[in-house]
TrEMBL record:
Keywords assigned: Kinase, Transferase
SUPFAM superfamilies reported in the protein's UniProt record: Ribokinase-like (SSF53613)
Keyword RNA-binding attributed: no
Source species of the chain: Piscinibacter terrae
Keyword Transferase annotated: yes
Protein name: D-glycero-beta-D-manno-heptose-7-phosphate kinase
A GO CC annotation given for this chain: cytosol
Top-level taxonomic group: Bacteria
Amino acid sequence: MSSIVDRKKLASSRVLVVGDAMLDRYWFGAVERISPEAPVPVVRVNREEERLGGAANVALNVKTLSAQATLLTVVGNDEPARKLRALLEQQGVTTLLGEDPQLYTIVKLRVIGRSQQLIRIDFENQPDHEVLAGMLSDFERVLPEQGAVLFSDYGKGGLEHIPRMIELARAAKKPVLIDPKGHDYSRYAGATVVTPNRAELAQVIGPWSSEAQLHERAQNLRRELKLDALLLTRSEEGMSLFDGAGHVQVPAQAREVFDVTGAGDTVIATLAAMLAAGLSLREAMPIANRAGGIVVGKFGTAGVTYEELFG
């Protein structure tokens, strides 16, 4: 694929990522026996890794592409928050981290044995309303300098004020992209584009029995929510974009699927970076599709570089 985005222009583009950030922890080990206490494998941990997850991984994906990323989120006053901050600073992501002393910074701990995930353990609770109100103030303050706004919704409570944030961003003529969660999309009304996968969209419009039925329901939802577009990610079937001009589909480009973790993050981060650089949704869509095809060939949450995408 030839580049249609100048790297210098992309490097000066700014994306504000707002949402639920988390720390992904991996414990790798050998499995040589079954526990005498219960019928479960015993994992002797010999290696640990920590990676950015959730909205933090989205911001990292933006930065990995060479664009500028700012992350607005809420964290606790704990060890995972300090680690999250350090990883973000190490990667060059600008941070606006609201601190809630009562909050457990979200951690997803995955135990890996024999190259297989054996269990995932989640640590989380709901953020305080006053801290979330502070996020809204920070959002208004940094919005003018952004080229696009990306909401990464993991349903953890960090986007309490998303309707107002969307309203402010659209009034400022900023593209608004949303990675959705749950079955109520009314809170996303007025956004530029929402990017559900098949399972997420089926929660909202119901299972479809034909392409014609999908197209009709997707367009109805788009018009109901006053979205510019709805982008459906379809795994091995590629992507479908529904907008005011109709429908366009691009086929999947993954050569080998190794791990789908974080693929949606890569797709929407690439879309946001391209929109911030001045591309239209229809121009950005095949680039984001290619990015998704590259990242599923990597293990764990990972990003795609400018060279991988356009080289």
